[in-house]
Amino acid sequence: MRILLVSPLPPPAGGIATWTKTYLQAQKTLGNHVDIINTAVTGRRVNKFTSVFILDELIRTWRILLSTYRHASGSSYDIVHINTPCSQKGLIRDTLCTLIAKFYRLKVLIHCRCDVTYQIKNSFQYKIFKFLCRRVDKILVLNSVSQKYVHDKCGCESKIIPNYISQNHIRTTPKIISDRIKTVLYAGHVTIEKGCNDILEVARYFPDIKFILAGHLMAEIKSFPRPENVQCTGEVDKTKILQYMTDADVFLFPTHTEGFPNVILEAMAAGLPIISTPVGAIPDMIEKSGGVLIQVGDVKGMVNSLNQLDDASLRKAMSAWNIEKIKSNYLVDIVIDKLLDEYSSSNGVQNE
């Protein structure tokens, strides 16, 4: 199979970029030919991702569109797979890439790499998104809420294809379960949007429990008083994160918005019970057996959930369930097979 993938590669490292790197390795193993158009940020945004430099962005967009034209006009592909972040600028760019590919009669699949309901913020963005959905041959999403949005708002059908995790990230032995909760872990950017200010508040209720916040500490969080039982590690490498997961008793992730968080995949694979919010794919991931869901900003709910999970037998059951859920649903080979099925079933009939 010949595939044209429009997606970012590291650097900088990120969820979609990491997905892309693993995808390319898997497709190479299967013998499929993949050409990639790298949409990763360039120039000054590499080190200042949240900043916008107009000239750098115009140059990057022009290079992406030119590369799409050269590939689409010069080669025959079975599918063009576009990973879209669904941001306003990203949607404009990805729509232009789609129109170029469709001009050369190529089949186009878009994969929405976000919680669509959260990311589509205004009527202009919605109109672009709807236009894009109605021009492609297949729409993939990360979670059921995004699938519903695409159906209800755009009148299009979509399929859920989750993120994946490598076999070597999964525990090979049952997790040792402590009699009491001793360590609670959060991993990711330490920001208000991820609910880390709420974690600081929760920690005050449990002075005998150690709370580890592993990840880049944003300035907005530095202004919040930090209890003595909270450790902010700063940015650490993946090996250290996985070690924290091995040692922790509970993974606390009170995020405000997500598409399909890889960090929860990793925590589940490590056998950690999860406390998180019902956003994005998280309810689909942990269901009712892998953890506890609390509402965004519900500090009391987090406190009650930690008290509930102090029951070692409950944590043991959740730990085993999470590992099995990963093995049966989220391994690279399983997800890639589903993705290839979607490629094959893209018969060129557009959504109307």
Helical content (DSSP H or I, runs of 4+): 40-55%
What would CATH call the class of the largest domain?
A: Alpha Beta
CATH-defined fold name of the largest domain: Rossmann fold
Radius of gyration of CA atoms, rounded to a whole number:
21 Å
Identify the overall geometry.
Answer: globular
Strand content: 15-25%
Supply the number of helical segments.
Answer: 14
Structural class computed from helices and strand pairing? alpha/beta
Strand order of the largest sheet: 2-1-3-4-5-6
What key attributes describe this structure?
6-stranded parallel sheet, Rossmann fold, 44% helix, 2 domains, single chain, 352 residues, 14 helices, alpha/beta, 15% strand, globular
Question: Can you describe what's shown?
Answer:
By secondary structure, the chain is of the alpha/beta class. It has two domains: 2-164 and 332-345, Glycogen Phosphorylase B (Rossmann fold, 3-Layer(aba) Sandwich), CATH 3.40.50.2000; 168-329, 3-Layer(aba) Sandwich (Rossmann fold), CATH 3.40.50.2000. 44% of the residues lie in helices and 15% in strands. The protein has helices at residues 15-30, 54-74, 88-103, 116-119, 123-133, 144-154, 196-203, 219-222, 238-247, 262-269, 282-286, 299-308, 312-329, 332-345; strands at 2-7, 33-38, 79-84, 108-112, 138-141, 159-160, 183-187, 210-214, 230-234, 250-253, 274-276, 291-293. It is globular. Mean pLDDT is 94; it is low at 348-352.
